[in-house]
Structures are given as C-alpha cells and as structure tokens.
Design brief:
Length: 384
C-alpha cells in the first residue's frame, strides 16, 4: 500500500490536506481537517509548518495501521470512541439484555466481523466513530460487494451473495441507529445515501403451495407418514420445523373459541404466539392416545434434513415442480392466509413476526394473482 500526503486548493485560498491511499487497484482518501493558510509572515510560516508536521505524523501512523486515540469530550461534543471498541460493547449489551434469539445474535457477530475486516483492509483498525460518514458507508458497501470473501471454507473463499450483502447493510444500519440513540453519533449517514449508493434490494421469492398443490400433497404416498403429517400441519399453522419438532400436547389448549396452539417462546425468535387451529389443521395431528401434556406431539419425527428428503420425494410423486423443504409450509400458510383475506397485522401475529414489513413479503408474492383477478373481473364486465 502507498500513502501520499496531498493538498487541494479551496475557494478561500486555504489548502486542505488529505491522505491518498492506493492498494491493489483501489484508491481512497482521508481528509485530515488540517489547512495550510496563505501568507509569508513568520507567524503564518510557523503555523503552516506545525500543521504540516501534524499531517506527516498522521501519515506515519496510517502506514503503521495506528489510529488516533480517543480523547475526552469537550464543549458539549459527543464522546470520542474507537468504532471497533464500541462495536464490542454494543454486542455485550445485547447479550446482557437477552432480548435477541441466538440466530439474531449470530447475525450481529457476523456483521461486526465484516466491519472489522473492512477497517483492517483500510489500515484503520482504531478508527474513531466521528469518521463514520457517507463516504465510509459507500466504500464499505463497495468492499462487501467486490472485495470481501466469505472464509467459512478457507480452502475455497467465495464472494458474498447479493442477499448477504443486503443483510449486512440492514444490520449495520441498525447498529448505527443504536449509536445515535446512545449519543455517540450525531446522525446515521445511511439515510443520506441515494439508491445507487446503497446495496440494491434483492427481489424476494417465496415458494409456496397453492390450494391445488396442497391437495396433491395430501394424497401423495410416502413411507414416512409422520413427516407428512408434520408438514401438512405446518401448512395450516405456519410453525417452523424447530417449533413443530418440540411441540408438546400441553401446547394445544381448549378455549371458548376452539382449540389453539399456545407457545410462550418460539425456538428461533423467543416470541410468544397463539394460533387458532382449524378443522383441517386438527385433522393432521397424530392420535394423542394416553400421551401426557409434557410429551411431544410429533414424537419420532426425523431430522430436518431427512424430512426434507421425504418432502422432495412426495412432491415428485405428486407432480409438483417446486423445490420443497419444510420451511415452504410456513410460506404456504402465510401466503394462503393473506390470499384468503387475512389482514397483514393478524398474519404477522400468527407467524410471530416482530416487524410487519417481514409479513409484507407474502402480500407482495400474491400481488400478481390479485392483479390477474382484477383484470378478469374487468373482462367479465366488458371493460377489458
């Protein structure tokens, strides 16, 4: 890597000093908030000499990968924090608060790892939070999409998928929002980016089974009847495999409105959920017999991997040309519930989603079907 100290003439006659970094075909800049002022008087010469010495010292630090140490806040300014240190504290606070699921915490850890990788790539491992600006984010997103490699398999590192890049963008935005709320950042620069500067949204696709395909699956032959029952039950309740496999008879409760599933803490999200059971959902439950409330409903269910193999064979038998997995049952429940007229808020609660925007995905999936229905209605009345 090469680092050059350069200057640029401003309209007021001053010269702003900045560092020009170049490595592996990539160039970036760091403006130092240091200025050379015009004039030849002894005092101005002395001031410019001191400014230049500061710039040279910063250049030497950057070459060695040394960042400025944080200083105490003065005159009401925000506290000066090292970004990497703050990220570690942020994660520790999330763990202490115990509000996120294990999978959500893993997403935070993964994002922090990539951010630190970027800081090291820029030779700025001790960068201060005050340096997080629009340019930082634009360069970071470029790094995600064109430079960073997933090292889960060291022998075969791979570029990140567009969906993974988008997930990191969402996660970092949440982290910076928290920094603003915590008073260590004035504003989140993400909201100053235009659409071309952000990681592009990835079109969302959700495989699900139509009413006709569900009927075909119901008739499909299989040697693993329990896997079939569990999948079909999930298609009418929206439960994930993790919740189906741990569901106990005590979770199925009788109320004045009928039977419903009551789960105090879902396996993935730790959220509580109550799901009314329709007659068709009840028809896919195994016989309870003398099983106690503490016994599992689908006792003996094969692993998720083995269950998915069963489902693929069933789909092939039924002539369904879709890649089937157990999670398709959840998509099936959500999409068909909305298609049948269920409002987003209600379906959001049934699925245990924290954010209704997650549920909105399923409404988007069936929008083409709704548009087609409206067009057919227009044709029926001779307005096509």
């Amino acid at each position: 890597m090469t680092v050059e100290l350069r200057s640029r003439l401003l309209k007021n006659g001053n010269k702003t000093l900045y560092l020009d970094f170049y490595e592996n075909g990539k160039r970036w800049y760091e403006y130092l908030d240091l200025y050379i002022v015009p004039g030849n008087t002894p005092s101005i010469k002395k001031e410019n000499e001191g400014t230049m010495n500061k710039a040279i010292a910063i250049k030497a630090k950057r070459i060695l990968g040394i960042e400025d140490e944080p200083e105490p806040a003065v005159n009401g300014e925000l506290p000066k924090r090292v970004f990497a240190d703050w990220l570690d504290g942020y994660y520790k606070r999330l763990v202490d608060e115990d509000r996120l699921s294990d999978s959500s915490l893993e997403n935070v850890v993964s994002c922090i790892k990539v951010v630190k990788s970027y800081l090291s790539f820029r030779h700025r491992p001790r960068m201060l939070m005050k340096k997080i600006d629009k340019k930082f984010l634009v360069d970071f997103f470029d790094y995600l999409q064109h430079t960073y490699k997933n090292t889960n398999s060291p022998e075969n590192p791979k570029p990140l998928s567009p969906r993974t890049c988008l997930a990191y963008q969402h996660q970092l935005t949440k982290i910076l929002n928290d920094a603003v709320m915590s008073g260590v950042l004035y504003a989140n620069p993400f909201y100053s980016l235009n659409e071309l500067e952000k990681v592009a949204e990835v079109p969302t696709t959700r495989d699900y089974l139509t009413k006709e395909e569900l009927e075909l699956m119901a008739m499909a032959e299989t040697k693993n009847q329990l896997a079939k029952q569990a999948f079909m039950f999930a298609c009418f309740t929206g439960l994930r495999y993790s919740d189906i496999s741990s569901l106990m008879w005590g979770n199925i409760q009788h109320t004045s409105l009928g039977q419903e599933i009551v789960i105090d803490s879902m396996q993935k999200t730790k959220h509580s959920v109550r799901i009314p059971l329709s007659n068709i959902a009840l028809s896919w439950l195994p016989e309870r017999g003398n099983n106690a409330a503490s016994q599992k409903v689908f006792a003996g269910l094969t692993s998720l991997c083995q269950t998915n193999v069963v489902l693929k064979k069933m789909a092939a038998f039924a002539g369904i040309n879709k890649t089937l997995s157990f999670h398709v049952a959840r998509h099936t429940f959500a999409t068909n519930a909305i298609a049948a007229g269920g409002d987003l808020y209600t379906v959001c609660k049934l699925l245990g989603h924290k954010d209704i925007q997650t549920t909105q995905i399923y409404a988007d999936v069936i929008m083409p079907t709704r548009i087609d229905a409206v067009n057919r209605l227009s044709d029926f009345f001779g307005q096509g």
